[in-house]
Amino acid sequence: MPRPVVLSAIIVCATCATLVASQQQPAAPAGAKSAPAQPAPTQPAPAAPGQPGAPPAQTPTQSRTFTAPAGLLFNTVRPERVADFEKVMAYLQAALEKSTDERVRGQAAGWRIFKATENVQGSAIYVYLFDPTVVGADYGIGKILADAYPEQAEQIFKLYRDSVSGGGSLLNMTPVKPVPPPPLEPVKAKP
């Protein structure tokens, strides 16, 4: 597929994904502390951790895996926090480049990051393009950052969490194989 077509498809998909973006929280790096979820107004507040009946503290995780040979992941970024998001992307790209994990190296080979020129509904849009994907690999940036920066992962992830306005939208993409077009009817000459 020619590059202009791919880039056009990314922009169209980014616009569509923004309109239907989920409001999930991004996956935190392993071991990072997360803010407790607010209970629904009709539910009683859960017991504090460490008290009887309290569930064990957990970090929310979100699957960032692909089942197709290519994929897209859209990030909506608060316009006033673009610089923070781009710092995180610099840490991510460095982590991908220096990783010795073969699976992460495979992910890095097909991972490209784009920024939409236009803002959508007031947000900056960043698109991760994965082509090819490593099917079944975890593309959540939390673990990649934690492995590369174990002492600073929580600080870096806070920049990320505070800069995005949702958990992002993931799309599995399957290439369409070209087929020969059906024959056209001959054009009849006008009398």
What does this entry show, briefly?
By secondary structure, the protein is an alpha+beta fold.
Outline the structure in words.
This protein has about 190 residues and is α+β, with helices and mostly antiparallel strands. The chain has a single domain (about 5-25, about 65-175), classed as Alpha-Beta Plaits (2-Layer Sandwich). The protein contains 5 helices and 4 strands; from the N terminus they run H-E-H-H-E-E-H-H-E. A 4-stranded antiparallel sheet has the order 2-3-1-4. Helix 2 (about 80-100) crosses helix 5 (about 155-165). The longest helix has 17 residues, at about 5-20. The relative contact order is 0.25. The model is unreliable at about 1-25 and about 30-60 (pLDDT under 50).
Strands across the major sheet, in which order?
Answer: 2-3-1-4
Q: Roughly how many Å apart are the termini?
A: 42 Å
Structural Rg: 21 Å
**What is the overall silhouette?**
elongated
What is the H/E string? HEHHEEHHE
CATH topology: Alpha-Beta Plaits
Reading off the top of the CATH hierarchy, the class is best stated as: Alpha Beta
Number of helices: 5
Task: Please describe the biggest sheet, giving its number of strands, its sense, and whether it closes into a barrel.
Answer: 4 strands, antiparallel
CATH architecture: 2-Layer Sandwich
How confident is the prediction overall: mean pLDDT? Answer: 78
Helix content: 25-40%
> What is the total number of structural domains?
1
Uncertain segments are: 1-25, 32-61
Number of separate strands: 4
Residues in β-strands, percent = 5-15%
Structural class by SSE content: alpha+beta
